Amino acid sequence: MYIIKLVEFLHKILAIPYLKSPDNPTSTYRKVYCFLLMLGVIYLSIWQLSGKFGDVYPIFKPSIVLLDIMVCILIAFFDIYDNTVRIFLNEKQFCRFYQKLKRIDQFLGLSATKSYFFSGIAQYKTSIITMHAIVFATFCSDLYSNTAVMGWHVHKYNMANFVLKYKFTWFVVHLHMSANAIRQRFCLLNARFHDIIRYPKCETHILNYMKCHDMLCGLIEFVNDTYSFQILILEKIIALHVIETTCLCLWFASENFNAVTFLNNFVWSVDFMICGALICFSLGKASAAAQRMVVLCQNAHCNTKNPVKRKILMQFSKQVVLTEPDFCCLGFVSVNYSLFLKLLTSICNYIVIVLQFDE
């Protein structure tokens, strides 16, 4: 209960977009507060970059400076764009998303859920507590070590980035919970469909499962429409940030070694890589669960002699193939395990290029 209260408090203070209930949309006061914080992000980003040009960037190599500028701009743009999309543009669609989820749960016989967001927090509370412990411990350690090495007048410009990194991590958690909610319902639907198609007279049940599958595919389309551009930016932020922290690790190791600073940069790299893995693997698993229905229909179609049942199963499999239930960015980049491997390859290649650039 306390973790849920803490999460709700942090979401309200930092204006992290979330929908408490589909019947309880964001108030006008909260929208005004979010807009003011977005203006604050713009101001802090300008203050941060202007301050770093005078006090921080002269210390580092040009490649690290360029990477840091790109990360600062992208992560601020990501926060503003995500807030705009989720709070101001697509709030009604978010309400419909949870209303459809409620209808699907009723069809599958699942117990009613007052708030899918808070039930997700309760389900993953151990992971969320661990995430907060690591992030805040790293922040405190980073604050102590970098202030000791560079001084507070230099390190103070990194404070704005910490809040944005924290909100960035919550975006990943939100998307991970949504993907897992969709995957779990697809898996349950597949299991029940596998059981029901063995009965002689199950045509009506199959048609109902077709409707439920179509609603779940609609949830995938919603995620693609709402999050695809953010996922694309997220991939770039992860790659650039990991390259930057890796270069900082190498720079501190060779020029001004400090074990705590080295460890902090390493932990930030690992944290962002875990964010990328969570997105790719959770969305990839949900896509695989959605596409499994085609195999079930084809196997049942081959093993049944009832012509009506065969026709319905064939229609169902065609519907799934035409729908193409797959998480993707901008309609052409599939978000799955292969995207994470591409991300790792890109990071390794860019690190080599950056190191050669500095020589």
Automatic annotation (TrEMBL):
Record-stated family: Belongs to the insect chemoreceptor superfamily. Gustatory receptor (GR) family.
Chief location bin: membrane
**Which ranges of the sequence are coiled-coil?**
none
What topology does it adopt in the membrane? Multi-pass membrane protein
Q: At the top level of its lineage, which domain of life is listed? A: Eukaryota
What is the native source organism of this protein? Answer: Zophobas morio
Instruction: List, in alphabetical order, the GO biological process terms annotated in this UniProt record.
Output: chemosensory behavior; male courtship behavior; sensory perception of taste; signal transduction
Q: Which InterPro entries did the record assign?
A: 7TM_chemorcpt (IPR013604)
Q: Name one Pfam family in it.
A: 7tm_7
Has keyword Membrane? yes
Q: Which UniProt keywords apply?
A: Cell membrane, Membrane, Receptor, Transducer, Transmembrane, Transmembrane helix
Function of the molecule:
Gustatory receptor which mediates acceptance or avoidance behavior, depending on its substrates.
Q: List the transmembrane segments.
A: 32-50, 62-81
From the Swiss-Prot or TrEMBL record, state where the protein is found: Cell membrane
Question: What is the recorded name of this protein?
Answer: Gustatory receptor
One GO cellular-component annotation of the UniProt record comes to: neuronal cell body
